[in-house]
Amino acid sequence: MNLFYVLAGVLFILGLKKLSHPKSARNGNLIAFVGMLIAIIVTMVIGKKLSFEMIAIGMIIGTIIGAFFAVKVKMTAMPQMVAIFNGFGGGASALVAAADFLKNAQHMMNGDMIIVGSLEISPIFYGAIVAFSIFVGTLTFTGSFVAFGKLQGFISGRPIVFTGQKFLNAAMALAMIISIVMMALPSSQDINLLFIVIVVISAIMGITLTVPIGGADMPVVISLLNSYSGIAAAATGFVLLNQGLIISGALVGASGLILTNIMCKGMNRSLSNVIFGAVGGEVEGAAAAIQKLNIKSYSTEEAAMIFDAADKIIIVPGYGLAVAQAQHAARELADFLESKGKKVLYAIHPVAGRMPGHMNVLLAEANVSYELLKDLDEINPEFEDCDVALVLGANDVVNPAARHDKSSPIYGMPILNVDKARTVIINKRTMNPGFAGIQNELFGYDNSIMVFGDAKVMLTQLLADLKDL
Amino acid sequence: MIDVITIFVLAIFIGFEVITKVPPTLHTPLMSGSNAISGIAIVGAIIATQLDGSIGTWLGLIAVIFATINVVGGFLVTDRMLKMFKRK
């Protein structure tokens, strides 16, 4: 029977492996789905006294909700979609652990061995793992919903901080450790109360750990929550001693951690700095810090003439492109430029957008060939002989201060060297600074030109002007 | 007990090996795809519906709903994204 769970695990691994190339990726996803079906069917076949009505009702409701959102969601809203699905996964793990706990609570109070399947498990191990499982799952659930709220705009994208926040978090973390230990130790007290305490503290921690994180740091948080949902599933696997849950949970946990690490490197910040640093708010209107920059603002007509004379163009998309839904307009401009015999490439910074790979998905939606999307290391040498770098709604990832200004909050962050291009054309809605609230000195460079306006409107106008030339 | 810990540790290593090779272009599908895999909690949810205590069974039902949203939504949305990745 366990062999089928191993088979499901193997299919998950194969599926993830095929995700390493765009050509095989879709098959990979399908293979992983087959693995999931096998795991589900096996569980239903070997399960004893299952309530098939409940399972059927739950699956029908879940399928309708999941399929509805999966089909309806816009590509620009993908980060919040992933966040909310992730939350449901974590919530499910917590609920499973909670249900199992309620079954065994009396045995735990008696100090009896806990029977899991055909094995007898020490109540110490069981208590600790079931408490941990409820903790991680619940934290993932509430944290993901806060992340969803921020990305969807229900909650301010700015860091929400209050005095005593760090102290509160530390106190809750300590209380959680004590609760987990108490859950493991044999006791005649009513552990149902302890269970409620764990659920409540976990839920609050999910919120207080996510609200201080600003919009621009969201790629890290989404990756981290992704990892938590895997850890929660694996922990639940230890509660039920189910190989399927353990293998899959470990895979997802590892995947989330790798992405978290890549995102942190992309910002040159440590994980603890992201979680506790409370920066990363898109500071709208905080323009007071603007230094005296000599900014040249051009119309789209003037910009069109520069494009007309250019041979090699690199487009640098950022979150502003997603907000303006300008991916199709960008591709139409690129198509026109290519039809004139010009070379067009796209430079994708690892933390551009609100989740890992956000820009790539948007541009794929707009039918841009994935081979034209270049990452940091590939594209940076290309700026040297590039005629125009077109920056669309990106800011901090192209700020040269990261290379030389030791006092800058983003010093050391790897950036796209757009300033090396002959001309840099920067499209922004307004002159507001980026996430760290710092002015971008690039805007004042001699080879920089600003074209203000909504990215979609600007690109459409630019294309019209180019055709009129 | 030892064997499940062994499985856990080996799975983490395989995860690191396999996922490090995924290129940045596919990071969003990787995330939503692995996210769908974390819906494996559905296995636990199915098992939870067998519990005798009425509260536990109801928790199982909610868990089945949550996990199914995660699984179905996750795989579908990943497929929708991957369909778009083309080379010209």
SSE series of chain B: HHHH
Determine the mean pLDDT of chain B: 91
The structural class of chain A is: alpha/beta
Helical fraction of chain A equals 55-70%
Number of strands of chain B: 0
Low-confidence stretches of chain A: 280-289
Percentage of residues in DSSP E strands of chain A:
5-15%
- Which series of helices and strands of chain A comes N to C? HHHHEEHHHHHHHEHHEHEHEHEEH
Query: Major beta sheet of chain A, specifics?
Result: 6 strands, parallel
Radius of gyration of chain B: 17 Å
Specify the overall morphology of chain A.
elongated
Low-confidence stretches of chain B: none
Helix content of chain B: over 70%
The CA-CA distance between the termini of chain A, in Å, is: 71 Å
Helix/strand class of chain B = mainly alpha
Query: Major sheet of chain B: size, sense and barrel closure?
Result: none
Topology:
The complex is a heterodimer of chains A (about 475) and B (about 90).
Chain A (H helix, E strand, L loop, with lengths): L1 H17 L3 H25 L5 H21 L5 H33 L3 E3 L2 E3 L1 H30 L12 H20 L6 H20 L7 H23 L2 H25 L3 H7 L22 H10 L2 E6 L1 H5 L3 H13 L3 E6 L9 H8 L7 E3 H4 L8 E5 L8 H4 L18 E6 L19 E5 L2 H14 L1
Parallel strand pairs in A: 3-4, 3-6, 4-5, 6-7, 7-8
Antiparallel strand pairs in A: 1-2
Chain B lengths: L1 H19 L6 H11 L3 H8 L5 H31 L4
Question: Describe it for me?
Answer:
The complex is a heterodimer of chains A (469) and B (88). Chain A is an alpha/beta fold and 469 residues long. Chain A is built from 17 helices and 8 strands. Chain A has helices spanning 2-18, 22-46, 52-72, 78-110, 123-152, 165-184, 191-210, 218-240, 243-267, 271-277, 300-309, 319-323, 327-339, 358-365, 376-379, 401-404, 455-468, and strands spanning 114-116, 119-121, 312-317, 343-348, 373-375, 388-392, 423-428, 448-452. The radius of gyration of chain A is 25 Å and the shape is elongated. Chain B is mainly α. Chain B has one domain. In chain B, 78% of the residues lie in helices and 0% in strands. Chain B contains 4 helices and no strands. Chain B has helices at 2-20, 27-37, 41-48, 54-84. In chain B, helix 2 packs antiparallel against helix 4 and helix 3 packs antiparallel against helix 4. Chain B is flat and about 55 Å long. Chains A and B meet through helix 1, helix 2, helix 3, helix 4 and helix 8 of A and helix 1, helix 2, helix 3 and helix 4 of B.
